[in-house]
Amino acid sequence: MSNTQTIQWFPGHMTKTKRQIQASLKLVDAAAEIIDARIPVSSRNPELNNLIQNKPRVILLNKCDMANQTATKMWIDYYKKQGITALAVDCKSGRGLNKFPQAVNEVMKEKINRLQAKGMKNPTMRIMIVGIPNVGKSSFINRISRQNRAKVEDRPGVTRGNQWFTISKNLEMLDTPGVLWPKFDDQTVGEHLAFTGAVKDQVMDIELLAVRLLDFLKKLRPQEFITRFKLENEDIEQMDSYELLRLIGKKRGMLVSGGEINTERAAVMLLDEFRAAKLGRITVEMPYGDKI
Ligand code: G4P
Fold first, then answer.
1. What angle do CA 99, 104, 110 make, to 5 degrees?
2. Neighbours of 93 (CB within 10 A)
3. Is 263 a pocket residue for ligand 1 (Cβ < 6 Å)?
4. Cβ(147) – ligand 1 distance below 6 Å
């Protein structure tokens, strides 16, 4: 089996998307960028920096319920060192979202102060959500608008169709998120997105993807993974990852007629369990490549 695969991405309306984000950005004071806490590098599109230019931003490390807690703290610290405010959130349960309005206020302090100095008493700030597909943009918008009993309204002077949620005093959010495209220049980025299920399985070889995931897991050795597949007495780090996939399939009784192991089924099962965090709360990408 070849050890590499290129994940193809058809950006379709990339230019149109870019234009739409630029147009929406004109309406807001800041952007909240949602990324996947398990893959903070691969779930960001670096092009956003150009798009948002000097606008303040908050990074939301979403799905933190599935990421390693220490790793998430390290990421928040990493962004802080760069002067970026980041927040760990879980849009499934709503955990962490209560800190969002304050974080936004903080990054907009300068602008608010400037406007107040000009005589505006309580300027209303507006934000928009941006992020690549599947990071949880809709979940975030649903959650935050529900929690804050959203007031949706059309405003004069704003393009028809744009609606604003009031999420706290003097803070409003555009109801439609800006959808960025993932950056696939680097093969690792594509693979990591595929591990988390952000990329459709049909576009890649599922067994090869499982083998790549095992390359990672056998070094990290998360306890849940070891226990779940009863690997305590196996020297998995020395094992070829395809052999490990076979072993896992065998342990789960995934056989085809003739007694051969159904490695495809094993691959699907492994990826499903990883995506559901059944193999542990695992962060795939660490700041500075640090290990936890
Ligand atoms: P998008 O708008 O950015 O494309 O993402 P969306 O909100 O649709 O979320 C993509 C998937 O991620 C959804 O799962 C959603 O439930 C899940 N998700 C979002 N935020 C979190 C989180 O903080 N933690 C966890 N564990 N999951 C999260 P799905 O399986 O596609 O849909 P559903 O079965 O949940 O309805």
1. 140
2. 10
3. no
4. no
Ligand 1 centre from 69 Cα, in Å?
19
Q: Is the CB of 139 within 6 Å of ligand 1? A: yes
Terminal CA-to-CA distance of the chain, rounded, Å? 31
Spell out the per-residue pLDDT of the chain, length 292, in tens: 444 555 544 555 677 888 889 999 999 999 999 999 999 999 998 889 889 888 999 999 999 999 999 999 999 999 999 999 999 999 999 999 999 999 999 999 999 999 999 999 989 999 999 999 999 999 999 998 876 654 545 444 444 567 888 988 899 999 889 988 888 778 899 999 999 999 877 778 999 999 999 999 999 999 999 999 999 999 999 999 999 999 999 999 999 888 899 999 999 999 999 999 999 999 999 998 777 6
With tokens 């342990």, the residue in question is 251
Q: Which domains does the chain have, with CATH numbers?
A: 14-175 (3.40.50.300), 205-289 (1.10.1580.10)
CA dihedral sign, ordered 77, 282, 289, 180 = negative
Distance CA 282, CA 39 (A): 10
CA of 93 to the centre of ligand 1 (A): 11
Residue 37: C-alpha distances to residues 64, 81, 83, 241 (Å) = 6, 18, 18, 26
Q: Is this model's pTM higher than 0.85 or not?
A: yes
Protein residue with least CA distance to atom 12, ligand 1: 136
